[in-house]
Amino acid sequence: MIKLIASDMDGTLLNDHMDVSLSNAQAIKRAQSQGIHFVIATGRDYPMAAHPLKAHDIECPIIALNGAQLFDVDGHNLYNKGLEKSTVKKIRNILAQYPDLHEELMTNEGIYSNNQEKRLDTIASMLADLNPDISYEEAMQNAISHAEENNVKFVKSFDALLEDDSIIILKLSAHTEEGASILKPLKEQLMNEVPKLAITASSKKNIEINHESAQKGIAVAKYAKKLGIKADEVMTIGDNINDLSMLEWAKYGTAVENAVSEAKESAHYSTSNNSQNGVAEAISRVLSGKIYKE
Q1: Alpha-carbon dihedral sign for residues 153, 40, 81, 260
Q2: Whole-prediction pTM
Q3: What is the CATH number of the domain that holds 233?
Q4: Which of 8, 45, 129, 239 is catalytic?
Q5: Is 243 a catalytic residue?
Q6: Spatial contact of 272 and 259, defined as CB atoms under 8 Å apart
Q7: CA 91 to chain centre
Q8: What residue numbers bound the domain in which 261 lies?
Q9: Could you give the C-alpha distances from 257 to 52, 188, 260, 275, in angstroms and in order?
Q10: I want to staple 216 with a disulfide (CB 3.0 to 4.6 A). Which of 128, 169, 198, 246 is the partner?
Q11: What is the pLDDT of residues 217-248, one digit of tens each?
Q12: How many domains does the chain have?
């Protein structure tokens, strides 16, 4: 019997307009009404994750920034798992060796970027990558229309952040239009030269760098344990590299149809794509008791 459902957001719960569909929202609430716990597990920070949920009055805990933070149903921050500042400096020195990367720092005080134009291009490119049915122009319009919810602070330099003891660096992200040709050697170099990192991705054109203990699978397992729920009572739903740890951990790891091949290989089950209410379909199977293996 499934007692907990954890879902990713971008490319999974959210459609190609970056919204939660009515069908997905209704399915989540049906599950909750029947005593099934529901939690978001996302690479987004808390404000960006909470915004689309509020449109449907969805109330649930949120695992943010790939597991670096957990917020309860009332939005209280229960923990932060950040990177040492010395480690961040090593990472940034390596990133500087690769041209045309757009770098961002996700912190306990919000997201920091040093280029507003590149950030908009980055979001649009990632949306187009995650939602191949829409054009880049449509993705850019979506990025612009949702800009107000992004909680981004623009600075000329990140140096001051690394000297401020009150700021916790929870995640670094780096994006390039060159994709794997740049990101693959970059990931290999980071893994060889900087210990205790979890390096994942939420699209083909980015990498996301966290502390090795800040992973979705670890966070979902910790949350489930707090509720007295075992891995064979959990369904996780995702689409990308940063979902692998939770897809592998849960007995009912489920990949949406638009998922990358690695996610499909890690999952034991499948569901429709994010623009066809794949989360609602998976939840409906749980409620009907007709979960089947693919």
Answers
A1: negative
A2: 0.92
A3: 3.40.50.1000
A4: 8
A5: no
A6: no
A7: 20
A8: 4-80+214-288
A9: 22, 28, 9, 10
A10: 246
A11: 999 999 999 999 999 999 999 999 999 999 99
A12: 2
